[in-house]
């Protein structure tokens, strides 16, 4: 661990040239169960294990305790005397001291701890402990988000998120993207279409024409996207990204929507080709899947729980392939020529429904041994937001924009991106066409209102650029094979629900 | 770059054992100005540079353009004919093609670009461009946060943040801490003391006893701290951390306060000693300063702008020293025996004022060549929140808690942490003493209200633990030598101000 650590710090320390490993002091000397299982303890006759009892099995002469600490799906098996095991029950926090010996049943576990001393750190009354060792439905567990991550597979999902954050941080760092902190409280709602949460508190200031007496003197919202702010930062510091909480006050009560979720957004500057942007999407997903595919701890643990595991493996393999691309117009043709009965008829210039997205993902993303995400590009201008760049050429005279969605089975759309309209005049015309500002040659600052600053970005030194937003929770749910996004978010928020 | 990259991914790829570098495809082939200045271009006769004009100087026979792209404080100098330079002005986005040749004035720059071709990508009308090359006050620049990061030193501050995030991500990853995403919309206000922002939107549901008709059916707030949620996660997955936006609706209009700021919080589990927690604080700050101190690009750039630069160097050196520790009681004695005239008289059991914190930081954190942050520990129980663990021994019979603040000059408190009360009964008593719940043997669920889940954590398998919160923006301001925190946050929010 320390060795890996030193190497890692040296490398990330390229952020600061010449950086050396400085983290030689351990934070605490505790060995996690994952490390005990992975590495032979330095002195096998003197091992200290701390963790929580997952289950206990009493025989006449001895007792077997299975303990975990969240670092590993696999438990550590401990052998105790019945007397030592007396006050132990599922959920109890313990410290066991003993010796680490080869197991007589190596198929079950290679080693087991022969316990000499037991400390009960925190008891768990079996009469009230809500997570007894038995099957609980996801719905039941969601009523206690503060407890459910104690279930081993939920700890694995926490570690998946952590590893995924590390992997994308590394990838963007390596590629020279600056990580930024975009604001959460904002004045505009980006696409003008989302349902937003209001933020505020009374300042009890005097109400005047320019001051409504609230904390910020005007209505403010929780951000629905960091895109507009990222565009400003990209013009300042080059390619940028952020992994930031994002909010929608949508009343959707589905397996794919949350009111609060993490979005990974990036902007690529000084580029005229959408390929550059789509390549960053591939790199991002590949950064997360590569390790899972080649057998990480988290990857192995997810496979142990997956049914069928082959589909999970296919998804992970698919993450590092070249993603197939199809235009929206071609996609509509594929849907129209299919014999599948859709609830909504697929037709040009209406959005793709979830059923359409699933069909496209399944039809075009299947290779012999991988499930590959599918890019659908060049949607009709009429159904996309004002800031997208119109395509240079149009197919059959139909007006499209340079944009893409990335589709996968089950989770459907996990990424949306586009080239941005970087020219002042066309941006104004697009805002007018979308009835965001009144018609006329050039709007006043007042007419532009909360988007004045965004229009400003096109006035001085504007350059071609594009970017995307990736639903980080959806990606994790897809890669973990978890059907409901509420399972990969520890404290999920949706309409009517905000527990803890 | 690609070489560093491959190594970096291999290392962070330990998240996923066996991970290899997969990011071989560049996102776009653009060379940043930092790379051109650092590395000799592969073919010096055919160099393409994109960026923004910082200044232009016309002579009779030739013109000199200084251009930047946010990747480097140092500009790139380009030589043009007066005809080529005709339409160029400060802020213009350009693409220059030419050859990279040694400069006749190597003291000013080692090489310069002899321009053959000029593309104007995005013009900038000098009559309206608001960032002409001259001094602008911070106050003026804050009126246009979307533009001010185009100023070279502000780009450096963006890159400092990015590098700092990478450094702490690496450090925590190496030390086996899981990075988590704690919720932003919450039901409780943690310490019960903060002024909170309300979040909501009308759901227009029916109002009943359990449903106030709003989106979440009950009042919700923007988080003031992730601590309580992190404590739940620590019991699930071991040591955890988060770098998360945090909110205070305080009307403070100071150089050290924002309404929206990033807090780095961590919890260390299965530990009974606060030293373990304080060591993580040192590791965190050391991870950021080590590179600055030993001469990173960002470090060198900050020094170029600092006056006096020696104080900056002292702060960076101090980050990797052992931080001195003093108890609150000793600190009060130091203050009382000082000849310094304080506005507020220092006395036991009142909080430390900013003037006291500054004095302690200056008196106890000065070594011969470094300014070292100072830990003040064991504050009186009466002035600290309900969740802090009472100290085992008390000095002079005065009741204290196992807690610490970390103080630095100017920014004052940048970290606060403590051991947490992990025992059920004492926690209940402490909540009662703080009048959060009524007196009595054991409160009902209803009385516990929005803190029921937090109390639950002490019911089953509770273990000793502690943690801290570090004001990430304050740390960056301190390390950058920037007197106002509003300069290190791109889109700062404070009372009455939420621009863009």
Give me the secondary-structure topology.
Two copies of one chain form a homodimer.
Chain A: H1 2-12, H2 33-38, E1 47-58, E2 63-68, E3 76-80, H3 82-85, E4 93-102, E5 111-122, H4 138-142, H5 145-148, H6 152-174, E6 178-179, E7 185-186, E8 198-200, E9 220-222, H7 227-237, E10 240-247, E11 260-269, H8 274-293, H9 297-305, H10 309-318, E12 325-327, H11 328-336, H12 354-364, E13 374-377, E14 403-408, E15 412-419, H13 424-433, H14 445-448, H15 452-456, E16 465-471, H16 472-480, E17 493-494, E18 497-498
Parallel strand pairs in A: 3-5, 6-10, 12-13
Antiparallel strand pairs in A: 1-2, 1-4, 2-3, 4-5, 7-9, 8-9, 10-11, 11-16, 13-14, 14-15, 15-16, 17-18
Helix pairs in contact in A: 6-8, 6-9, 8-10
In short:
2 copies of one chain form a homodimer. Chain A has 500 residues and is an alpha+beta fold. Chain A contains 16 helices and 18 strands.
Describe the structure.
Two copies of one chain form a homodimer. By secondary structure, the first copy, chain A, is α+β, with helices and mostly antiparallel strands. Chain A has two domains: 33-134, OB fold (Dihydrolipoamide Acetyltransferase, E2P) (Beta Barrel), CATH 2.40.50; 152-184 and 223-422 and 463-498, BirA Bifunctional Protein, domain 2, CATH 3.30.930. Helices cover 30% and strands 21% of the residues of chain A. Chain A is built from 16 helices and 18 strands. The first copy, chain A, has helices spanning 2-12, 33-38, 82-85, 138-142, 145-148, 152-174, 227-237, 274-293, 297-305, 309-318, 328-336, 354-364, 424-433, 445-448, 452-456, 472-480, and strands at residues 47-58, 63-68, 76-80, 93-102, 111-122, 178-179, 185-186, 198-200, 220-222, 240-247, 260-269, 325-327, 374-377, 403-408, 412-419, 465-471, 493-494, 497-498. In chain A, the strands form four sheets. An eight-stranded mixed β-sheet of chain A has the order 6-10-11-16-15-14-13-12, sandwiched between helices. In chain A, helix 6 (152-174) crosses helix 8 and helix 8 (274-293) packs across helix 10 (309-318). The longest helix of chain A is centred in the N-terminal third of the chain and has 23 residues, at 152-174. The two termini of chain A are 34 Å apart. Residues 1-26 of chain A have low confidence and may be disordered. At the A-B interface, helix 1, strand 1, helix 6, strand 6 and strand 7 of A face helix 1, strand 1, helix 5, strand 6 and strand 7 of B.
